[in-house]
Amino acid sequence: MTKCQRCGRDVEGLPYTCRYCGGTFCVDCHLPEEHNCPGLRRGPIGDKRLVPGYVDRDWELIEKLVASRVEDARVPVRVSRPAKVVSSRGSVIGKVIIAVTITALLAAVLGHFVVPRYTRPVDEKRAAQLIMEKINAYRVSNGLPPLQWSSYLESRCKKWADHLFGKILLEHSSPPSDGRAWGENLYMHVEYMGGLIIFPFIVIPYPPRVTTESLADEAFEGWRKSPGHNINMLYSAWRYGAVAVKCGYTSGYRCYVVAQFSDRP
């Protein structure tokens, strides 16, 4: 027969189990106040809410007290230490914010410094030389003398190519003021590339498809198929010429080609 853990008497009928400390008591001792229940402070067993002022040493005292009574009554008593509930929501949000910030910074560095610097598919100087070689070969095949390279025209071409690239437009420059015969061909290559979106408003662009050789072929063939530009390349009065190329990332990947011709160096 079950004994009451408070008074030690045999419990007739069904014993009462305290929902605060888990002990077994008779009808006279079953109320928490009657058996000085040690679990009143923390609340019912299974309630995981923390009790204000709770510290570990309180439970150590409670466990010792219950253990002494169990030893006297020789009846097993279940005592559950309340679980400490710690919300991890705040720490998770903080980690997410830190991760997003680091990713955004890396994307900004890659998109605006690393990719443009190390993905330069066009050698501007080499492209200009190839275009001039194609123009001269075209002139020779049509019975005209090849053009000689002009440092003066090269300087004008470079200056105007930089101007077009900075303004993102395509328009002819003004003729030289010394009254010389002069002509100019312009060409623009544009790639509106996609990119890898890492963070809002930060995009790592895909490398452009154009190459030095393909740009030279593209510019020359474009001029050859255009009547006005074709006449400029085959004009018999020209003796000097120069070409400049400017490429880079600005509203996509753009290459500006400027060729100028003259009868003077």
Characterise the protein shown here:
This protein is an alpha+beta fold and 265 residues long. Among the domains are: 1-41, AN1-like Zinc finger (Zf-an1 domain), CATH 4.10.1110.10; 121-262, CAP (Pathogenesis-related Protein p14a), CATH 3.40.33. Helices cover 39% and strands 17% of the residues. Strands 3-7-8-4 form a four-stranded mixed beta sheet, with helices on both faces. Strands 1-2 form a two-stranded antiparallel sheet. The longest helix has 30 residues, at 89-118. The termini are far apart.
CATH architectural designation of one domain: 3-Layer(aba) Sandwich
Q: What fold name stands as the CATH topology of one domain? A: Pathogenesis-related Protein p14a
Per DSSP, the total helix count is 6
Distance between the termini: 122 Å
Number of strands: 8
Instruction: Kindly report the spatial arrangement of strands forming the biggest sheet.
Output: 3-7-8-4
* Portion in strands: 15-25%
Mean pLDDT over the full residue set: 79
Give me the CATH superfamily of one domain.
CAP
Main sheet makeup: 4 strands, mixed
- Uncertain stretches: 46-57, 70-77
Rg (C-alpha, Å): 44 Å
Rough outline:
rod-shaped
Task: Please report the first level of CATH classification, the CATH class of one domain.
Answer: Alpha Beta
Please identify the structural class as seen in this structure.
Answer: alpha+beta
Helix content: 25-40%
What is the helix/strand order? Answer: EEHHHEHEEEHHEE
